[in-house]
Amino acid sequence: MEYLIGIQGPDFVLVAADSVAASSIIKMKDDHDKMFKLSDNILLLCVGEAGDTVQFAEYIQKNVQLYKMRNGYELSPTAAANFTRKNLADYLRSRTPYHVNLLLAGYDQADGPALFYMDHLSALAKAPFAAHGYGAFLTLSILDRYYKPGGWTGEQDASLLSILNKRFILNLPSFNVRAIDKEGVHDLEKVFKHAYLRSRGDFRY
Amino acid sequence: MALEDFCSFRNNPHLWTPASLLPPLQNPASSTPGIPKHNHSGRRRSELSNKDDGPPLHLSLPPASAARCLMPTVRRPFPLTHGTTTLGFVFQGGVIAAADTRASAGGLVACPEVHKIIPVHSHLVVTSSGSGADCVLWARALEREIRLYRLRHGRVLSVRGTAKLLAFMLHPFKGTDVCVALTLCGWDQGPNGGPRDGVDQGSAGSSGDATATEALIRIEGTSPAPGHVTQSPVSEQSGLSSSSSSSSSSSSSSSPYSISSTSSTAREGPKVIYVCSDGARLQGELFSVGSGSPYAYGILDGGLRWTLSREEAFSLAREAVFRATHRDAYSGNNVDLVYITEKGWSRRDREDLKEEYYTRKEEIGKIVEERCRKTD
Questions:
Q1: Helix (H), strand (E), coil (C) string for chain A
Q2: What pTM value is reported for the model?
Q3: Would the CB atoms of B257 and A201 count as touching at under 8 Å?
Q4: ipTM of the predicted structure?
């Protein structure tokens, strides 16, 4: 049901998440933000079991901020990803594992853009592009076909979302899209199917 | 005192944790070699927990495994269901919380006159759904914690803070049979306001006058005001709505329901937050919970606007609960309606939906008769 995608460009990382928070068949919220800002240059996208996502993501977020307070400098994306993986792995074989799937995206001044894929078994992989959810089955092949290292300029973003609209049985009408580059995190225009109606104060759509 | 006993205040005045309800072998103060003492660990007790300095630092989650393995599942005497229809939404005049009043146990109506909208303090109510016993317990536990927070800090916790506190309180019981889905409906006071006794503020503009120091020094009675039916004079209501709409329009560029949802991040104003025992915590403009909620959503999604007047909002909420109780077997009897404004919450009289149903049926019968007479 939930969908995350991340694509690494030459000097940026583009990430998107659907914005539906559902409870069985009902959409409780359709403007829910699944991205957590770990620092000025790092975003954590988190989906999975209802309470676990926010608990785990906020825990990682606060610890990354604590590291900066204690040491005076921030964790790099690689270090943050490994810290997250370690925590997920530690809880995996306890009686209370966190069932969450994550994407961690960041820009390091020294190493450039980085995207990390992490799943609920705490497998960690640095990847040029990655996706979570059923939508991944549909979009990864497009990325395989068109992605060239250093060559993703963002023109094919529309085709990724349109394939979901066309082929995915579940309706994902809205996404949060952000880009991280050396200046930090930027909110890109939120992709809403009926944005103009919502702007009239009518939130049926 | 009942509340003292409930807090187990005499035994452990400085400790609060759900683990204090467990048998004493789980006393975390004793050193157990297996438990590592990380300051930043999420689920292990912080080393600082022995200090008696007020708010529980060990809100960072006692070992959740304790709750799950030590409490054996008790066989249920009868099937519990989650039959209810509750809803809460914000609009320009404040927050509306509405609920039915039926408690069902399997196919039996265990009680037709339950109060599902429970006040926590003068500006916050909680609508409950899920298991009735759990809801009453957790609402009371939340009330206790909010009262303690107010006594310790001299100000009332914001609605978002209350929701986070509640989610953390429920977290150790995730995976057990605790089933609560609460919607916190409240109004966040700005820095100049403060929680007040009673809702009968004569002067509409008093919020600006009360200073922060006054709020701190005044030891307020913490029991929330008894609700009463008010039909505020029109001038007061229009004053209220214009002030709230002006504050909301200043905080957001387009409508208060705009995409960036600045109204939800605003410090002051109406808030509706959904918290459930799964751990979900969602802030939004409209929530409906329970077995009758899909039916209620149908009515609410069609009619809800920010610009509703107060009477329109009341009738929308009543209509939604009425239609849900009509279709859902596990919701029914009466509808309770509470509205929360800057001045606090107040309750409308409980309305019997059976009467409503028959009145409407009569009216429709009359219309049909008219039509038949005309066509004849």
A1: CCCEEEEECCCCEEEEEECCEEECCEEEECCCCCEEEEECCEEEEEEECHHHHHHHHHHHHHHHHHHHHHHCCCCCHHHHHHHHHHHHHHHHCCCCCCCEEEEEEEEECCCEEEEEEECCCCCEEECCEEEECCHHHHHHHHHHHHCCCCCCCCCCHHHHHHHHHHHCCCCCCEEEEEEEECCEEEECCCEECCHHHHCCCCCCC
A2: 0.71
A3: yes
A4: 0.81
